[in-house]
Every structure is written in C-alpha cells, then in structure tokens.
Design brief:
Elements (H helix, E strand, L loop, with lengths): L1 H7 L2 H8 L7 E2 L2 H19 L9 H11 L8 H14 L5 E2 L2 E2 L15 H18 L4 H11 L2 H4 L8 E2 L8
Antiparallel strand pairs: 1-4, 2-3
Helix pairs in contact: 3-4, 3-5, 4-5, 5-6
C-alpha cells in the first residue's frame, strides 16, 4: 500500500521523500543562556520565599533582558546579565516607561498592568538578589553557588562557553 501511494505521488514530491538532510548542530546563544539562567534564578528565589504566584512572567523577563542589550554587539553571559541588572535598577531599559513595561511586539500593551505594588517591590528585590549573586568575587564560591542554587549540568563548568544542543530526532529507527 505504501509503495502504491508513493508511486502515485508526482515526481517533484517524490524527490522530497527521497532526499536526506543533515540535521544541523544548534548552538544556544549567550542571550538564550542568560534568559534561561535568569528564569532559573527567578524560580528558585520566588520558591524559597513562598512567592510562587508573584514571580515575573517569562515573557516579561525575556523582553527586559533582550531590550537591555539590543544596542550592544556580541556580549558574554555575564555582560548580558549585568546589563539587565543595571538597566532594570536604573529603569533605563527602553521598554520601561512611565511606570509601565511595554510589550515589544505591541507597545500599547503594559506587561505589568495587573502587578500590585507589592509584586513590583518583590521583583526589585529579586533583581537585587541576582546582582548579589553575580558579584560573588571568589570563583570557588561562585561555582559553589551555581552548584547549590541553579543547575550543575547547565552552568557549573564555565559561565562563558557556549552549550551545544543536539536536536532530538522526530523519528524512530
């Protein structure tokens, strides 16, 4: 039956089924790694303080981090994290306007429209805790903090080297 279906296909479509593409190796960019790291730090921070329902959304974090480095060239992981911390603390991220954080896709939408003053205060405290974490001077203590607080598999080796992502195969052998 499969053979009959294949034979009934036009030649140009048959070519698609006959071709085999090499699946590329994907690299996670520093920006992607930073967003992953910051979201993980957020999850742990809010979990430990029993504020799980108050944590900032992933879209909010992604928008702020991305906007904080939009005018910079290639940056290291730590440079991107620090640009986010400084930009958030100084309210100099361009999406932060007049007590709002604008959606970069639709600037009419305020991403923190439903946030209470308490929730915004907790967000500021979390960014301050992220800053303290990033300013651990002793490399051994920094790696230990990553090991204890974040995720050994993803971040323990170094904070600067790209991670190779092996794509999953959508088929069975």
């Amino acid at each position: 039956m499969k053979s009959e279906q294949y034979n009934n296909l036009p030649n140009n479509i048959r070519m698609v089924f006959e071709s085999v593409e090499k699946i590329p190796i994907y690299y996670r960019s520093n920006l992607q790694r930073v967003v992953q790291f910051i979201k993980r730090h957020r999850d742990i921070y809010y979990y430990r303080r029993k504020l799980r329902n108050d944590k900032p959304s992933s879209i909010l974090i992604s928008a702020l981090v991305t906007d904080s480095v939009k005018d910079k060239g290639c940056s290291s992981v730590s440079e991107i994290v620090n640009a986010f911390i400084v930009g958030f603390s100084n309210k100099s991220i361009s999406l932060m306007q007049d007590g709002k954080i604008l959606n970069p896709i639709d600037l009419r939408e305020n991403l923190i429209e439903r946030y209470t003053d308490n929730r915004l205060s907790n967000m500021s405290k979390w960014v301050l805790a992220l800053n303290v974490f990033m300013n651990i001077e002793d490399e051994r203590k920094f790696k230990q903090s990553i090991h204890n607080d974040i995720n050994t598999r993803v971040f323990a080796e170094t904070f600067e080297t790209p991670t190779i992502i092996t794509p999953t195969k959508p088929w069975k052998k």
